[in-house]
Known about the structure:
By secondary structure, this protein is mainly alpha-helical. It contains 8 helices and 5 strands. Strands 3-5-4 form a 3-stranded antiparallel sheet, with helices on one face. Strands 1-2 form a two-stranded antiparallel sheet. A hairpin with a 2-residue loop joins strand 4 (196-200) and strand 5. Helix 1 packs across helix 4 (86-106) and helix 4 (86-106) crosses helix 5. The longest helix is centred in the middle third of the chain and has 21 residues, at 86-106. Mean pLDDT is 86; it is low at 3-25.
Amino acid sequence: MKQLFLLSKTFVALAILFFISPTEGHAHSLLKQGDTGAEVEELQKQLIQLDYLDTDATGYYGPQTDQAVRNFQNDFGLVVDGLAGVATHSLLEEVHKLAKIVYGEARGESFEGQVAVAGVVLNRVESDEFPQTLAGVIYQRNAFTAVHDGQYELTPDATAYQAVREAYKGTDPSQGALYYFNPDIATSEWIQTRTVEHRIGSHVFAN
C-alpha cells in the first residue's frame, strides 16, 4: 500500500514525545485517552475531516476519539494503540498537505478525478524520478500550479480529504500515472510529449 513509504520516515522518531510540525510550526504532544485541551480539539478536527469521528471537536480525548485514532492507524498501516504520538501526528500532517494539493489542483473534478490526482502525487514519491518525500514532491519547482499560484494555501474541503484517504488506502484511478494535465489549457510543450494513458474529467493522466 502507498502509505508504507511514510513509515520509515516517521518510525525513526517514535521515541520522541514532542516534534515540530513542518507545516504548522508548533510542537505536538503525545495525546491519549483522558487528555483535554486545544491539541486534542485540533486532533479531533483532523479526524472529523477524514470521516473517522462523527462528533463535535470537544477537546476531550474520550473513547470515541480513541477509537477514531485506532481506525486511522489501522487504515494507514500504523501501530494500532489509540495513542496520538509522533507517527500519527506526522501522518495526519502528510494527509493535510496532500489534501491541499488535491483541493488546489482538482476541486472542480469528480471524486474519482480527485483520487487520481492524489494517486499521482503518491506515485511520484514512490518513483526514483522524483523526490522521495511527500513534501519534496509537492514543493519541487514547477511541479504543481497550485503551489506556484497560491491555491495550495486554500482550505481543503471534506471531499479532498476523502479523496486522499481513498488514495492512501490503495485506490489509484490514475493507474500508476506520474503526470496529469488539462490538455485544453496546458502550455508546456514538454508535457504534451508525455504518453497519455487515459482521461478523467478535465485531466489526462500520462507517463
